[in-house]
Design goal:
The structure holds two protein chains of two kinds.
Chain A lengths: L3 E4 L2 E4 L5 E7 L5 E7 L5 E9 L2 E4 L6 E3 L9 E3 L8 E8 L10 E2 L3 E5 L1
Parallel strand pairs in A: 2-11
Antiparallel strand pairs in A: 1-3, 3-8, 4-5, 4-9, 5-6, 7-8, 9-10, 9-11
Chain B lengths: L3 E2 L4 E5 L4 E7 L4 E9 L6 E7 L4 E4 L2 E6 L4 E6 L8 E9 L14 E6 L1
Parallel strand pairs in B: 2-10
Antiparallel strand pairs in B: 1-3, 3-8, 4-5, 4-9, 6-7, 7-8, 9-10
Classes of the chains: A mainly beta, B mainly beta.
Chain lengths: 115, 115
């Protein structure tokens, strides 16, 4: 089991460029999440998904888009990158039903710098 | 509006001694409190949790105490080991969510265990 895999690990973008951060999980988890962590701060939820075809906004969704076409994949799209989006991005997944709940498992993170 | 505060950004402790990490919160809707541990260049990993109906939960060297009336919890690590050197995040979840991944993260406490 690879768990939660994020690519790329590092990326430098120019202002106004766009990119997609990839995330895939092989644990058959129904929930997936994108968090960002700014220096000296805790993680903040950007978007989450409760299953394929369903996504919802978190605390800081502006400037981002997501899609969930399969259970395994949850890409995060940045359109028109801005310096304020310089951060470390974490993808996570968890499993939740009426009778079973797991904690969230996180990927290794993507360090993004916008210059 | 910080709902979760970890007021000590860093903590240095000698190997074998006790590490005490504190977390304060303001939201009465939190029903579970999770602690995550994070090593550099890795994603956070789940460490221990406590339900709001309990005041203590123990797992090996790790014990979490909850004082609901004071909206305060603490994580005790006894004895501290060099491998415990990491950033520790307090991460509560709201009772209105059925997901263990929609969390509010504190800013984290960097623990350094010295020989």
């Amino acid at each position: 089991n690879a768990g939660v895999t994020q690519t790329p690990k590092f990326r430098i973008l120019k202002i106004g460029q766009s990119m997609t951060l990839q995330c895939t999980q092989d644990m058959n988890h129904n929930y997936m999440y994108w968090y960002r962590q700014d220096p000296g701060m805790g993680l903040k939820l950007i978007y989450y998904s409760v299953g394929a075809g369903i996504t919802d906004k978190g605390e800081v969704p502006n400037g981002y888009n997501v899609s969930r076409s399969t259970t395994e994949d949850f890409p995060l799209r940045l359109e028109l990158a801005a310096p304020s989006q310089t951060s470390v991005y974490f993808c996570a997944s968890s499993y939740s039903t009426a009778s079973v709940n797991t904690e969230a498992f996180f990927g290794q993170g993507t360090r993004l710098t916008v210059v | 509006d910080q709902q979760v505060k970890q007021n000590s950004p860093s903590l240095s402790v000698q190997e074998g001694r006790i590490s005490i990490l504190n977390c304060d919160y303001t939201n009465s809707m939190f029903d579970y409190f999770l602690w995550y541990k994070k090593y550099p260049a890795e994603g956070p990993t789940f460490l221990i949790s406590i339900s709001s109906i309990k005041d203590k939960n123990e797992d090996g060297r790790f014990t979490v105490f909850l004082n609901k009336s004071a909206k305060h919890l603490s994580l005790h690590i006894v004895p501290s080991q060099p491998g415990d050197s990491a950033v520790y995040f307090c991460a509560p979840r709201e009772m209105t969510t059925d997901s263990w991944g929609k969390l509010q993260f504190g800013a984290g406490t960097q623990v350094v265990v010295t020989p």
